[in-house]
UniProtKB/TrEMBL annotation:
<protein>
    <recommendedName>
        <fullName>Glycosyltransferase 2-like domain-containing protein</fullName>
    </recommendedName>
</protein>
<dbReference type="InterPro" id="IPR029044">
    <property type="entry name" value="Nucleotide-diphossugar_trans"/>
</dbReference>
<dbReference type="InterPro" id="IPR001173">
    <property type="entry name" value="Glyco_trans_2-like"/>
</dbReference>
<dbReference type="Pfam" id="PF00535">
    <property type="entry name" value="Glycos_transf_2"/>
</dbReference>
<dbReference type="GO" id="GO:0016758">
    <property type="term" value="F:hexosyltransferase activity"/>
</dbReference>
<feature type="domain" description="Glycosyltransferase 2-like">
    <location>
        <begin position="12"/>
        <end position="134"/>
    </location>
</feature>
């Protein structure tokens, strides 16, 4: 069945786009071919200078496309949230893709749950041996629960309660978001199904354990700074 835009979707899927011409079409198609049809796809182009926009334009009758000056992935995601019509929010990175029943499986759980967030399993796809060596802690199968935005579906009200993603280029917005959920006692319900393929390649900004550790250190410093400001006021 052909994918059609709908005015009142249950789920809004948001893809931030920046110079992703190599992978973006596969990401888009993985959304449009979902078994769950009650959704909208929002793409926020963040100032691409390659052929990404031309690829996205091919789907103009099926997606909502917004253009943003290069302000970073968190700003793009937040713009997507602001334009989202769905009761639930899902994210997908331009170089990853959903499995065909991903949204259906996550929606079926969260729609019947008191939880504000659900998480499926992630399959790590390593394109090179070099990228594989950067993640020695991941098992040979490459499948696990991982705190990635693309592995989750969130109730939109969660962003209205806790605020949007942190727009700070020094701190990974997804790491900060999951940290914030943990600090607020928001439990993420786990769904025992693989829903996301997370591609690891040499151009990933998050393609090493060392990067992740560096982000966590910056996040801790940011948190301490915020607490000092609060205590001083």
């Amino acid at each position: 069945m052909a994918f059609k835009k709908i005015s009142s979707p249950k789920v809004s899927v948001i893809i931030p786009l920046f110079n992703g011409e190599k992978y973006i079409e596969e990401a888009i198609n993985s959304v449009l071919r979902q078994s769950f049809r009650d959704l909208e796809l929002i793409i926020v182009d963040n100032g691409s200078t390659d052929g990404s926009r031309l690829i996205a334009d091919k789907f103009e009758d099926k997606i909502k496309l917004f253009i943003e000056s290069k302000k970073g992935v968190a700003t793009a995601r937040n713009l997507g949230i602001k334009h989202a019509q769905g009761e639930y929010i899902a994210f997908l990175d331009q170089d990853d893709y959903f499995l065909p029943t991903a949204i259906e499986q996550l929606y079926d759980v969260i729609n019947q749950s008191e939880h504000l967030a659900v998480m499926g399993k992630t399959h790590y796809l390593f394109e090179t041996q070099a990228s594989r060596k950067r993640w020695p802690q991941i098992n040979e199968e490459g499948i696990l629960f991982s705190t990635l935005l693309g592995a989750c579906v969130f109730k939109k009200e969660l962003f209205e309660k806790l605020g949007y993603l942190l727009e700070n280029p020094e701190i990974s917005d997804d790491v900060e978001w999951f940290y914030r959920l943990d600090q607020k006692g928001i439990e993420i319900q786990k769904v025992d199904s693989v829903t996301l393929t997370y591609r690891q390649h040499d151009n990933n900004t998050t393609s090493s354990q060392e990067y992740t550790q560096g982000v966590i250190l910056k996040l801790l410093k940011h948190t301490l700074d915020q607490r000092r400001k609060t205590n001083a006021s």
